[in-house]
Amino acid sequence: MLSLSPLSTSPLRSASVLFSKMAHWFHRNVLKATTNHKFEIKLKESTEATKKLCSDLKLSRSRLLDLIRDANNTSDTIEPAFVAYLSLLYGLIWEIQSSTEHIGRPEPSKLRNIFVFKWTHTLLGSLTHSHADSVYEAANISINVAIWFMKHAAMVAGKDDISMDEAKEIHGLLRRAAGIFTFVQTEFLPQLSNPPILGSDLDPRIMNAYINQCTAEAQEVTVARAVELKHNNNLISALANETSKLFLDAANTLKPFKPEISAQWIKYLELKAAFYQSYAYNYCGENLLSMDKCGEAIKALEESEIFLNKAKALCQEYGKTHGPAPRVKPDQHAVFKRLAPLVRITLDKCRRENGFIYHHKVPGDVPSLETKATYGLVSPVDFTMPAPNHLWSVPAYKSFVGAAGGATGNTKEHDLPPVQEEAVHQTTKEPKNESGCLLQ
Fold first, then answer.
1. 64 vs 71: CA distance, rounded Å
2. Which residues contact residue 168 at a Cβ distance below 8 angstroms, ignoring those fewer than 6 apart?
3. Terminus of the chain with fewer CB atoms < 10 Å: N or C?
C-alpha cells in the first residue's frame, strides 16, 4: 500500500505536490492568430450609440486578444473581458428585438455577414482562413479563450509550491475550458454559414478532442485526491480507468488527421491514457490482494507493468515528435520515477506472498477493471451566451441594418506570425512529500 506522509493532513496535499511537477506534462497547442479589426462601417446617420458600438467592439477585441497572450493573467481579468466582447458581438449574431417582440430564441442578425474575420487554426499552420460571418468570429475567439484557460492551468501547476486552493483552481480552470469548448460546439458550430474546414479548430472532431482532454486533465486531480484520502482501491482503479478512457477517446478522435498536424498531440494523449491504465491495474491488483485473490492480483500488476512500459515508450516518441507544443522529455519527471517503484514493490509483494501463503495459479486472462466510478467523475462548467450589451438598442440595430451592404474586409488569405505569448515559469523543484500518489 502507499506510504502516506504524516504531514499530508490536507485532502488535496498530494494533488498539490502532484501539480508542482506537472507543467511540462500538459500538452498545450498554440494560441490562434488573427488580424486586427477596425469594425468600420459607413452609416447615413451616425449616433453616439452606433459610434460607441464600433469603437467598443474594436477596443474590446483588441484588449481581450492582448490579455490572453499572457497565461499569468487571472481568470478574474480574462472572463469579464471575454463576456464583454461577446455581449458587443451579440447584435452581429442575433437580431435585437424590443422586450415585447422577444419571445423564444431570437432570429439571426441581418448584420452577421457585414464584416470579414481572419483566423489561423492551431493544427493548420500560419495561413489565415477568412469568413464573412460573426458566428465564425465568436467561435474562434471563444476557442482562444478556452486555450488560455488550459494554459493558465499549466501556469498555476508550474509554480514551485502549490496550495490546496491552487490545486482546486487548476481543477476548476480545466472544467471551465471544457465548458467553453462545449459552448462553441453546441451554440456556434450549428450556426456557421459554411461547413468547418477539415482539421480546423471548428472541426467537431478537434472540438471533441479538446473537451475530452480538459475533462481528463481535471479528473487527474480527482484521482490524486482519492489516493490521498485512502479511498477504496476499487474506486481509485475505476477513476484512473475512466481518466485513461477520456485520454484515449481524445487520441482516437484525432487519428483521421495527417500525422504531420496531429502526431504530437496524439502521442501526448496516448501516453497519458497508458499511464492511467497502468495506475488502474495497479489499484485493481491492490484490491484483489485485499480480497485474498493473489493470483489475479499478480496478473493485474503484470498488466500494470506492461502499460507503464508502453507509457515510457510513448514518452520517448513524444519527445522526438515535431509539433506546436514545446518538445520535452516527460519520462524524466518525478511522476514516472514514483509509479514504477510502486508497481514493482506491490508486484514483488504479491509474488512473495503467493509463494509463501496462497500458492494461487496466475490466470491467463487479465482481470476486468471497474468500468464506472461511483463518484468523482468530472463534468464541464456550463457557459452561456451573455445578454446583448446595453448599447444594442433597437434604433441602433436598425441604423446598422439600413447601412448594411456587402461584406467589408479583404478576403485574400496570407500567413500570420505566431502569437507572441509571455513565458510561463515552470518549476524544477522535486516534490517534498513521501506520498506515492504523484499521479501524472
1. 12
2. 12, 221
3. N
Query: In this structure, are residues 331 and 316 in contact, taking their beta carbons and an 8 Å threshold?
Result: yes
Distance CA 440, CA 436 (A): 11
Provide the grid cell at 300. 493485474
Say how far apart CA 157 and CA 135 lie, in whole Å: 33
Contacts of 160 (CB under 8 A, 6+ apart): 20, 427, 429
- Helix ranges, 94-163 (H): 134-157
Q: Answer whether 85's CB lies under 8 Å from 60's CB.
A: yes
Residue with cell 462548467: 381
**Positive/negative CA dihedral, 236, 242, 243, 244:** positive
Q: How far apart are CA 433 and CA 341, in angstroms?
A: 16
Task: Note the pLDDT tens digit of each residue in 160-203.
Answer: 777 778 888 999 999 999 999 999 999 999 999 999 999 999 99
If one counts every other C-beta atom within 10 angstroms of the C-beta of residue 23, the result is 22
Grid cell in block for residue 61: 477585441
Q: Between the CA of residue 254 and those of 149, 276, 381, what are the distances in Å? A: 21, 19, 24
Write out residues in the chain with pLDDT < 50, as ranges.
1-24, 428, 431-440
DSSP letters for 266-309: HHHHHHHHHHHHHHHHHHHHHHHHHTT-HHHHHHHHHHHHHHHH
How many angstroms separate the CA atoms of 251 and 270, rounded?
Answer: 6
